[in-house]
Write a structure and sequence with these properties.
Blueprint: H1 6-25, H2 41-74, H3 76-80, H4 92-121, E1 129-136, E2 139-143, E3 152-154, E4 162-166, E5 170-177, E6 182-186, E7 191-195, E8 201-206, E9 211-217, E10 229-235, H5 237-251
Parallel strand pairs: 1-5, 4-10
Antiparallel strand pairs: 1-2, 2-3, 5-8, 6-7, 6-9, 9-10
Helix pairs in contact: 1-2, 2-4
Amino acid sequence: MSLPTRKSRALRLGLLIAPITLALTGCSEVSGLGFPEGVSSVNDISLSLWQGAWIAAGVVGVITLILILWPAVFHRAKESKGEFPKQFQYNIPVEVVYTVIPFIIIAVLFYFTAVKQEEIVAKSPTVAHEITVNAIQWSWQFGYPEAGEKAVVTGTPSKPPTLVVPVGERVRYTITASDVVHGFWIPAFMIQMQNLPGVTNKLEFTANKIGEYPGRCNILCGRNHAQMIFTLKVVSKADYQKYLDTLKASAA
C-alpha cells in the first residue's frame, strides 16, 4: 500500500477546513447566532458583542484545529518511515505567542464588554414610565406608581405574577429585595440585575416587540427558588394605559 503523497494530504486537510471557514466567512451579514434580535433596547446594544465573541471563538477554533491536524497529517509519512520528530525542551517564541495572543483576545473582549455594559446601565434624564420590582421568598411584587401607591401585583410560587409593560416606551425599574439576594432576569431580553436587601438598583430598557416572555430569579435564594418565576407581557401603549386604569380602580 503506497503512502499518500504530499499533494493528496494537503487536499484532505483543505477539504476538512474549507466547510468551517465558509461557515464563518461565507455570509456578508452575520446572523444572530441564536441571539434574540430586536426584542428590546438591551438586545440592540449587546448583539454586536455576542456576534463578535462567536466570530473570535470560531477563528480561534479553526486555527487550533489546523495546528492539531497539521502534525497528524503531514508528519504521518515521516513516522511511517521510522523518522522520529525532533524534540524540544522549550520554544521561547512559541511560548510567548501562545501567552500574548490569549491576553490580547481577553483584553479586547473585556474592553467591548465594559463599553456595552455602560450603555446598558446608562440612565436617561426622563423615562415614560416607572415600575418597582421587589423580590420576596419566593415570588415577585410589581408596583405601578402611576396607578397609585397601592397598585401592586404580588405573586406566589403557585401563582406567578405578570409584569405588564408598554411596547416602544422606555421604562425605569426600581429593583429591591425584602429578604435575601435574588436575580431579576429576563432571558429573551438578555438582561439581569440583582435584587439586594437594603440596596436599591435602577434599570432602564425599552421593550420592542409585543408578546409574552418568561422571567425568573437566577440566583439560588432558598427552598422554592425554582418556582420564583414571572411572565413579562409587552402590550400596546393603549392596552398599557387600560391596565393602569384597571389597577387604579382596584386599588381605590
